[in-house]
Amino acid sequence: MLGKLLNILGKLFLCVLALLLVYVLGVLLINLRDKPPSATVIEFQQSWDNRKPVDSADNGYLYFLGFDVAKDADPKFVGEERVQWTKEAILPATEESIRFPQAYNDFQKQLPKEIVQLMDLCSQITATCINNIEKQRYSIIQWSKNDTWILDRYRQLIAHKAWLELMKTDIRLPLPSYGEVMKVQRLAFISALAIMHPDESKNIAGLLDDDLRFWRSVLKNTDTLIGKMIAVAAIKNNFLWTNFFLLKLDNSIRPAAIPAALIIPFTDEELSMRRCLIGEWFLSESLVYPLDGSGIDNFTGRLLLAFAYQKQDTLNKRAESLNSIVLELDVPLTNFEATLELYKQKAYPEKTATHYFRHPYNVVGQILSEVAPPTMYTEYVVRTKDLEAFRRGLLLIIEQMKPTSPEAVRHVSPYKTKPFALNQEQQSVTVFGLGNDARAQQTYYY
Fold it and tell me: Helix/strand/coil (H, E, C) string of the chain?
């Protein structure tokens, strides 16, 4: 009896072992070949290759790329050099991040201490910032008479009419000096507000308009998510500074100082995330391809990676994930609020070990795709769409400045659940976006 039982258990063990062996062989077999590029990957590549060319003289990106060089250097020339350098700097063996060969120039070290302090104070554009600009007006004017090369550089930057990013999108390459440019934008408005005359309108309108047009061009044409968010932040800053500039002007001349670019609604193309998310896919490509097992010392690890990771299939999954955001959320603004609410209700259940046992093809790629799910990008989409609400809110406040129409209602929020909050006692209008943090609202004054 015992012998028969042991015989049955032995056969059962052999069956389980055989099934396990068949499963392992099956996993190895199905992981022998990678997938071909998907239709979405091909579409992304074609969109990248078919970007509209821009004359180098008009391309603000080249000037932007060299913006941080020394006072006596030509930003555009250095930008062109850096583009060429990036084509040669990244080799298949390159693993770590690298830096531009030209020395970085910290313009703040060349500013008077009080100007730096004021610039730091005005990182938040508030009444406190504006009041301190007035208090430091003499210091700003004195500095402006002596050395304003960095402001001249910014004016030359925002005079560019086009934007095309020519540097390869690769996680190992350095980024342009986004933070430095944002600081100089702030400094340019501080200086202009301090030295403007009460009856001045033409020069102020020119600065505000050039600035807004430039950043709207970046918003529309950038190929990176960080570029998109920097443009969003710069445009919101422009709106806040515009509000305070207009407050200083008389009613009779204020209309002439309103930036022409402010009157134009944001287009679907400007608010679209498609172009920058395609750029995100190319960034993913630079992360995926180095995963070839060369950095793993032990044989078992290399073997597991060889049969559990497929590069192209991983890129295909990444492309589908990013494209799903475009397909579901790149809708006209009139439909966005309702669409976003439905999108947030979608569930993305966490995959268990059982899932990977039942779907053993490219397990590593599946896990990598879970690291950055589509929902991770929702807030970026919202911040971009909210720009139209902030634009309309600023136009409403301009209407409120008119003594003949204190109850203007022409400009309303694009969101039904987020109406503008008019505070007559404080003489302000607060605009609410659909985001979940402090960046989702702005307050304007009249």
Answer: CHHHHHHHHHHHHHHHHHHHHHHHHHHHHHCCCCCCCCHHHHHHHHHHHCCCCCCCCCEHHHHHHCCCCCCCCCHHHHHHHHHHHHHHHCCCCCCCCCCCCCCCCCHHHHCCHHHHHHHHHCCCCCHHHHHHHHHCHHHHHHHHHHCCHHHHHHHHHHCCCECCCCCCCCCCCCCCCHHHHHHHHHHHHHHHHHHCCCCCCHHHHHHHHHHHHHHHHHHHHCCCHHHHHHHHHHHHHHHHHHHHHHHCCCCCCHHHHCCHHHHCCCCHHHHCCHHHHHHHHHHHHHHHCCCCCCCCCCHHHHHHHHHHCCHHHHHHHHHHHHHHHHHHHCCCHHHHHHHHHHHHCCCCCCCCHHHHHHCCCCHHHHHHHHHCCHHHHHHHHHHHHHHHHHHHHHHHHHHHCCCCCCCCCCCCCCCCCCCCEEECCCCEEEEECCCCCHHHEEEEEC
pLDDT single digits (tens) 347-394: 777 788 888 888 889 888 888 888 778 888 999 999 999 999 999 999
Structural tokens at position 86 = 């990036």
pTM equals 0.90
Give CA–CA dist 42/314, Å, rounded.
14
* Cβ neighbour number for residue 72 with a 10 Å cutoff: 7
The conformational region for residue 442 under phi > 0 = left, psi -120 to 50 = alpha, else beta, is beta
Q: Where are the domains of the chain?
A: 48-276+380-445
Instruction: Please answer whether residues 329 and 340 qualify as being in contact, where contact means their C-beta atoms are separated by less than 8 angstroms.
Output: yes
pLDDT tens-digit profile of 31-69?
A: 888 899 999 999 999 999 999 999 999 999 999 999 999
Centroid of chain to Cα 440: 15
Q: What span, in angstroms and rounded, lies between the C-alpha atoms of 16 and 354?
A: 18
